[in-house]
Specification:
Spore Coat Polysaccharide Biosynthesis Protein SpsA, Chain A, about 40% helix
């Protein structure tokens, strides 16, 4: 049972799956925070019924904003040294959370990525999604001179130092993925990957479903990655932010 970390679960219209996700998660983690990002269904009520802490946005602000709300609460109202992010749709097996948190405890890393591609897995991801992840993996590894196999994983762990950075304007407002990895590496944070497995989502659609969203995601992420790769002041900005928060 994980007791030294806050598990942050962003959720938007997850009423059909949130109950089963939280029931399973509670078998592995004690401190769970659900951030309901303005859901129009019964996500908030069903999460509350599971006996976990739930914060609610009055309107839908996006995945990154839900994460920032979770980090803000964790930094201001708890003393936990570590934060783990966990998708509400049931894709993440909570049994792997211990593997993610251990490098943080051992001070081997400031930011730990649960990688779907470090080891062979039974679950086969859709071809286009896997191809996109591999493409971002290649360029992320190239830009930070460190092998990163899964920069788009939503199952990550971080310490309080990184959480403070995520409260700043440097944290992307829509899809924080490979660009965040580049930003943290450029700031001098230690990054590590550990192997995890994923499974099919319990719900029918994803945030990247359809045609427009994936195209927007690709160009937005590419632009953001280049932006952070070209900046030369990120270590200085890190020092400034650590003195403020």
């Amino acid at each position: 049972m994980i007791e030294d970390s806050l598990i942050i679960v962003p959720a938007y219209n997850e009423a059909e799956v949130i109950e089963s996700t939280l029931k399973e998660l509670r078998e592995y983690a004690q401190n769970i925070l659900v951030v309901d990002d303005g859901s129009t269904d019964q996500t908030y009520e069903q999460a509350k019924n599971q006996g976990v802490l739930v914060l609610q946005h009055l309107t839908n602000l996006g995945y990154a904003s839900a994460l920032k709300t979770g980090f803000l609460y964790g930094l201001r109202h708890t003393a936990y040294n570590y934060f783990l992010t966990f998708d509400a749709d049931g894709q993440h097996p909570p049994a792997f959370l211990e593997k993610i948190i251990q490098p943080l405890r051992d001070d081997e890393a400031d930011f730990v990525i649960g990688s779907r591609y470090l080891e062979p897995a039974e679950f086969k991801h859709p071809f286009l999604r896997k191809a996109g992840s591999r493409l971002f993996s290649f360029f992320t590894s190239l830009l930070i001179s460190q092998k990163i196999t899964d920069p788009t994983s939503g199952m990550v762990g971080l310490n309080r130092r990184v959480a403070k950075i995520f409260l700043s304007e440097f944290f992307p407002l829509d899809f924080p993925d490979a660009d965040v990895v580049i930003m943290l590496a450029r700031m001098g944070f230690k990054i590590k990957e550990v192997p995890v497995e994923m499974r099919a989502s319990k719900r029918k659609s994803s945030m990247h479903s359809g045609m427009v969203k994936p195209i927007y995601y690709f160009f937005k992420m590419s632009t953001s990655m280049i932006h952070f790769a070209l900046r030369r002041d990120l270590k200085e900005k890190r020092r400034e932010l650590e003195s403020v928060f």
